[in-house]
Amino acid sequence: MAVGLQHVGLILAVVSWCLQSSCTSSKVWKTRSQAESVTTSQWQFEGLWMSCAATSLGSVQCSKFKTVLGLPAHLQACRALMILSLLLGLASIIVSVLGLKCTKIGRTSDHAKGAITLSGGIMFILSGVFTLTAVSWYAARVISEFYDPLHGGVRFELGTGLYLGWAASCLAVVGGLMLCCSYRKPPPTPASRHFSYNYSKTSQGQSIYRAAPVSDSSSSKAYV
């Protein structure tokens, strides 16, 4: 059961990392609303790194954002969150593979490997939370500007990149939870019984040895 949870959780987590990569590099985090467009032969869309315009003839022109400090604060934060998510997800994949029961690493015990898998699952969950925070924050900003009557700029709608991010975050959280659930705490080992021997002599010259367990002094026995 634990092995199956590890394998399925790792597969989901790897798929989520691939979706996170596609989401980060996507150019369609938001698209220009067609409700206010005079013509439908032109489209405008933006991602985290560039803004693009396309025509019905198939030509696409993209321009990268030429400044970093001049970008909106939420866009810079989303960039940082997605990069952290990718780095954390990659580290999680490596850690989780090392913690699989079918992976042999020297003389590592099953308990130690279970702890490694648990760490990988927690890292996957954090990676999914970072992605979910980034895409939800960006989507909230797009929706807020769309319904703002005082917004004088171009109105945008949600793009496919955001849906990729939501799917990736869900898979990362589910995969991380499955990896965490595969961890089983080892049963407690019974305490070893230690005996102390006391040597004494009686008046008749007999030697007496008394043995008493340290854990239970009331059940001591004497042997003559």
From TrEMBL:
TM regions (residue ranges): 80-100, 121-140, 160-183
Gene Ontology MF term list: structural molecule activity
Membrane topology label: Multi-pass membrane protein
InterPro entries xref list: Claudin, Claudin_CS, PMP22/EMP/MP20/Claudin
Highest taxon of source: Eukaryota
Subcellular location(s) of the protein: Cell junction, Tight junction; Cell membrane
Signal peptide: 1-25
Keywords: Cell junction, Cell membrane, Membrane, Signal, Tight junction, Transmembrane, Transmembrane helix
GO CC terms of this entry: bicellular tight junction; plasma membrane
Pfam family, one: PMP22_Claudin
Gene3D superfamilies: 1.20.140.150
Similarity section: Belongs to the claudin family.
Function summary: Claudins function as major constituents of the tight junction complexes that regulate the permeability of epithelia.
Protein's name in the database: Claudin
